[in-house]
Amino acid sequence: AQSVAQPEDQVNVAEGNPLTVKCTYSVSGNPYLFWYVQYPNRGLQFLLKYITGDNLVKGSYGFEAEFNKSQTSFHLKKPSALVSDSALYFCAVRALFTGGYNKLIFGAGTRLAVHP
Amino acid sequence: SAVISQKPSRDICQRGTSLTIQCQVDSQVTMMFWYRQQPGQSLTLIATANQGSEATYESGFVIDKFPISRPNLTFSTLTVSNMSPEDSSIYLCSVPVLLPSPNEQFFGPGTRLTVL
What we know:
By secondary structure, chain A is mainly β. Chain A has no helices and 12 strands. Chain A is about 0% helix and about 55% strand. In chain A, strand 7 (about 55-60) and strand 8 (about 65-70) form a beta hairpin. Chain A is globular and about 45 Å long. Chain B contains no helices and 11 strands. In chain B, the strands form 2 sheets. In chain B, strands 2, 4, 5, 6, 9, 10 and 11 form a 7-stranded mixed β-sheet that branches. Chain B has a 4-stranded antiparallel β-sheet with strand order 1-3-8-7, with no helix packed on it. The radius of gyration of chain B is 14 Å and the shape is globular. Chain B is mostly beta strands. The interface between A and B is medium-sized, with 20 and 20 residues.
């Protein structure tokens, strides 16, 4: 089955420290991977994506993610966390289904809490 | 990037009534997606709405409960019919990005529905 797993419900980190939000996936074929962020009472905002090319992709707000094919992972990282980074983060994969149409499958989400 | 607006932004409804949610996009798009985000949960795709054809519903969602209209390339509605408290969720519409990459999706701000 095609799926996305975010093993941590919540990640706590002190401001200024590096952060990692984990994501693993299972998909047929080449994965198209995405990270979205959801701030309170707001819709989802696109952060970054991996389609092809360099395994390390850079996105908005200083975030980056590393694609690891052997580990089927796409962890989100930031060298120095800000309190304003506190939000709900979703990993997603574009999967191909029967009939030739594809759709985004979302992980359960990880709540990031950055403490001053 | 596409600008997506949704109406209403939130509503509180009584059990047994219906609510129609509107989604307006500032550019023409072939496909529009409707998602549900139940409290504390991830996003689940309800249906894909193509202009000029019937919506395609995901497993667990039926047209009688969630009728969708797609009268033109910039607008869609989702109706939540005969509501129960279990329908309390955030409902989001989404459209694919066409340029430079057809793989991303933009999301509207969501409609927060509470059913009493």
